[in-house]
Write a structure and sequence with these properties.
This protein is α+β, with helices and mostly antiparallel strands. The chain has a domain of 32 residues.
Length: 85
Amino acid sequence: MSMTNIIAQMDRSGALHQVLPGGNTVPMVVPNSFPPMTEAEIHAAAMSDPDALPITDEDAPRMKRVTRAKTLRRALGLTQDEFAT
C-alpha cells in the first residue's frame, strides 16, 4: 500500500488549505465524518462510556492530586535526561 503525505495549513478562520509543492495553497474539502448530534445524544453517549463517567460526590474524597512531572523535575533542578534515568 502506498501512502501520500499532504502538508496542510489552517488559516485564522479555521479553514484548511493544502500546501502544494510550489508553495501555493488550495482549500481542502474535509468530509463531515460524523453526523451532527443533539445535546441529549451527546449526554447519553458520554454517560454510556464506563471509562469516562463523571466524578460523583463519593468519588471525590478518595482522589489524590498528582504532581506534574515537569514541575517536579524543575523543582529538583534536573534535565529531562537526568530525570528519566
